[in-house]
Design goal:
The structure is a single chain. This protein has about 200 residues and is α/β, with parallel strands linked by helices. The protein is built from six helices and eight strands. A hairpin with a 5-residue loop joins β7 and β8. α2 crosses α3. The radius of gyration is 19 Å and the shape is globular. About 25% of the residues are buried.
Length: about 200
């Protein structure tokens, strides 16, 4: 069974929109290695339309230019890219195809195929839908120490709670947190009376 992991750059106040406007000052060798260990090793990418358009508008040209980022651009070009869109699309970037049918059903079928992990970059709407459908196996968040104050957040103001379990955590020199979460069961109920039993006892 293949796993599906979503990777997002996210601010301290939960913003995931337009990371190109606030993310790059925090990009260092540690983050470069983290991204290469994930997207740089992917054989299948699942992307929303806007994320795909952004990638397709940049990475083929970078591969052709032959600069320092050309090897990473080639990896993305060689990967199978499945694009989620309600509109019928045509593609110029190699190995690109449109997801066929219902998102949940198509992703469930994709997970049953042979192959390596499926990675999602950005694509917030896709991530939200797969979390709600119980089809996302890992949520990889690179949490930046900045409050952006405006823009789309990963989790909206409506809908049920989304309990998660922390799988691993790492702190980069820039203060960015490299966090992997997995879906978790609901934590159950609790009250302050339950919590206060865990407070330190002080004499006085």
């Amino acid at each position: 069974m293949r796993t599906v992991t979503a990777q997002l750059f996210i601010s301290l106040d939960g913003v995931v929109e337009a990371p190109d406007q606030w993310h790059f000052p925090y990009f260092n060798d540690e983050m470069g290695r983290a991204v290469d260990a994930t997207l740089g090793r992917a054989d299948t990418l699942l992307l929303g339309r806007r994320t795909y358009d952004s990638f397709a508008g940049a990475w083929p040209g970078r591969e052709a230019a032959g600069g320092e980022d050309a090897p990473f651009a080639k990896v993305l070009g060689d990967a199978r890219k499945i694009v989620v869109s309600r509109s019928r699309l045509t593609f110029d970037w190699r190995n690109s195809e449109q997801l066929d049918g219902d998102l949940a059903g198509a992703v469930a079928a994709l997970k049953a195929e042979p192959g390596g992990p499926v990675w999602i970059s950005g694509s917030v709407s896709v991530v939200r839908q797969l979390l709600a459908a119980g089809l996302l196996d890992r949520l990889h968040l690179l949490v930046h120490p900045i409050a952006v104050r405006s823009g789309m957040r990963l989790f909206g103001d409506d809908g049920p709670a989304v309990p998660l379990e922390l799988v691993s955590a790492e702190t980069f020199a820039t203060g960015v947190l490299n966090l992997f979460y997995a879906p978790a069961a609901a934590p159950g109920t609790g009250t302050y009376d339950d919590a206060k039993t865990h407070l330190p006892q002080h004499e006085g």
